[in-house]
Design a protein that fits this description.
The chain is globular, with a radius of gyration of 22 Å. The strands form three sheets. The protein has a three-stranded antiparallel beta sheet with strand order 1-3-2, with no helix packed on it. A three-stranded parallel beta sheet has the order 4-5-6. Strands 7-8 form a two-stranded parallel sheet. It is built from 14 helices and eight strands. It has helices spanning about 10-20, 50-65, 75-80, 85-100, 120-130, 135-140, 140-145, 155-170, 185-200, 245-255, 270-285, 290-295, 300-325, 330-355, and strands at about 1-5, 25-30, 35, 40-45, 70-75, 110-115, 175, 210. It is about 55% helix and about 10% strand. The longest helix has 29 residues, at about 330-355. Strand 2 (about 25-30) and strand 3 (about 35) form a beta hairpin. The relative contact order is 0.12. The protein binds tryptophanyl-5'AMP (TYM). Tryptophanyl-5'AMP binds near residues 164, 167, 178 and 179.
């Protein structure tokens, strides 16, 4: 951090003008101070994290921690918007925390914490709820999908996107790395921040979503027209980061393809094989055209066998690290430290919002 306002005014302006032209995307100048941008994101502790979560979101988390000030949350308050078994919720929250670290998050570079340990999330969500409209929440496609076959949907499912907005806005996040199923929620977060700022004065940073250009939506293996989802009924529709090599093999070998045998990327006419090519490319680092060349005239069997190996190799490293960390005292310590650091920042933003709303602060 460098405070340019300590320089004399003429020099400060000249320095800032020059610097702005050379500034990396990851830095910003805020009130005369050169700062790292901040990233915030979260994952629900509902079931095991799958390769869609990993390729669409978690790998971005790990990349960003090298250049930004990162906050990553286990969003347990979100997960109770659908029924949860308390024992499983407890275990899954720690599983996700351990998987964050096993996939490469470094607690020295990223703040890792559990959402419900920072009460400001629920409090800001209420303040934002009172400044949002049922009409805009009714338009959320995720709410429509999740409530479709329910006679009566829980209220929390309806207000879910507001809690998500509170998560992001509490940390003055500039960037929110997510899969593209979260696009609409990020748009709503931006609308809420702008509306609040206009009504009550500058309070929140207006964040931007960060989506992978490739692999922002990994599709279900049994139905490549739907996204890979934790709530899928068919266990072979997804690959979890903790799946055994045998389960990975079964899931890939059964994955829906098409009646041809040509390995070619064509999302419209060959969605199944295109999805597998995307997964292969992201795990191996090889481009799609390299893969198309490599498997010219080979047939789906050989391609799928190699893909199983590539995935199992990557998962082995993650699983080894996961086993080390999951039962360790270190994990709880990391979450305690994360809670402290997150609370400090979240409480400052909450106070700012309450003050601007006219609340008496004692
Ligand atoms: P969740 O737990 O459903 O998913 C976690 C992350 O994984 C991404 N994702 C995918 N990416 C690619 N392909 C897929 N098939 C796929 N499925 C899921 C999601 O986009 C997400 O980035 N609402 C969020 C959790 C949340 C949050 C937040 C995120 C709560 N508060 C604040 C960001 C900022 C969710 O349901 O994640």
């Amino acid at each position: 951090m460098f405070d340019f306002s300590r320089l004399n005014k003429g020099l400060e302006k000249r320095c800032l003008d020059k610097l702005k032209r050379f500034l990396y995307d990851e830095w910003m100048i805020n009130g005369g101070v050169l700062m790292m941008k901040r990233a915030f994101s979260g994952v629900q502790p509902t079931g095991n994290i799958h390769i869609g979560n990993y390729l669409g979101a978690l790998r971005q988390f790990v990349e960003l921690q090298e250049t930004m000030d990162c906050f990553y949350c286990i969003v347990d308050l979100h997960s109770i918007t659908v029924p949860q078994d308390p024992k499983e919720l407890y275990e899954h929250s720690l599983d996700v925390a351990a998987l964050y670290i096993a996939t490469g998050l470094d607690p020295k570079k990223s703040t890792i914490f559990i959402q419900s340990t920072v009460p400001a999330h629920a409090e800001l969500a209420w303040l934002l709820q009172c400044n949002s409209y049922t009409g805009e929440l009714s338009r959320m496609t995720q709410f429509k999908d999740k409530s479709r076959n329910q006679e009566s949907a829980p209220t929390g499912l309806f207000t879910y996107p507001i809690l998500m907005a509170a998560d992001i806005l509490l940390y003055d996040a500039n960037v929110v790395p997510v899969g593209n199923d979260q696009k609409q929620h990020i748009e709503l977060t931006r609308d809420l921040a702008i509306r609040f700022n206009n009504k009550f004065g500058e309070t929140f940073v207006v964040p931007e979503g960060k989506f992978n250009t490739f692999g922002a939506r990994i599709m279900a293996l049994d139905d490549p027209t739907k996204k890979m989802s934790k709530s899928a009924e068919n266990p072979f529709s997804l690959i979890s980061l903790l799946d055994t090599p045998q389960k990975v093999k079964k899931s890939i070998m059964r994955a829906t393809t098409d009646s041809e045998s040509e390995i070619r990327y064509d999302e419209e006419n060959k969605p199944g094989i295109s999805n597998l090519l995307t997964i292969y490319s992201l795990f191996s680092g090889l481009s799609i055209s390299d893969l198309e060349k490599k498997y010219e005239g080979c047939g789906y069997g050989t391609f799928k066998k190699d893909l199983v190996e590539i995935i199992n190799e990557s998962l082995k490293d993650i699983q080894d690290r996961y086993q080390e960390i999951r039962k360790s005292d270190e994990l709880i310590q990391i979450l305690k430290e994360g809670k402290e650091k997150a609370s400090e920042i979240a409480n400052q933003t909450l106070i700012r919002a309450k003050k601007n709303l006219g609340f008496v602060l004692l």
